[in-house]
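Lecture notes, continued. The same structure-token format from the folding unit now serves as the input rather than the output. Read the line below as a description of shape only.
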């Protein structure tokens, strides 16, 4: 999902080994999998849905948010995802202000 957005801004995606150790809160792995099933079931459609939601007049973060809204409208991501993403984007913005 990130690739169409990043490509629009001339960025590339790369992968490497983990560089951090994540301490997870207790949760139900099966519930996590079930909640992610629509993304697997509609995986071929996701890039087109995301690309259709993007506008060159918007910022990268606004496009990311709009992409999640488009996926939510298609019931591919949970209806809470855009809200969670919005909170995460605000937290990242605050961190950027603190380090500037």
């Amino acid at each position: 999902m990130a690739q169409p957005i990043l490509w629009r801004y001339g960025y590339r995606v790369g992968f490497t080994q983990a560089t951090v150790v994540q301490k997870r809160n207790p949760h139900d792995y099966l519930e996590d999998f079930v909640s992610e099933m629509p993304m697997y079931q509609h995986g071929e459609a996701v890039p087109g849905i995301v690309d259709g939601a993007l506008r060159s007049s918007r910022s990268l973060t606004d496009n990311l948010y709009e992409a999640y809204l488009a996926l939510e409208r298609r019931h591919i991501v949970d209806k809470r995802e855009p809200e969670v993403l919005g909170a995460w984007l605000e937290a990242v913005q605050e961190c950027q202000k603190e380090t500037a």
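Point for the exam: Helices lie at 2-8, 29-41, 46-53, 60-73, 81-99.
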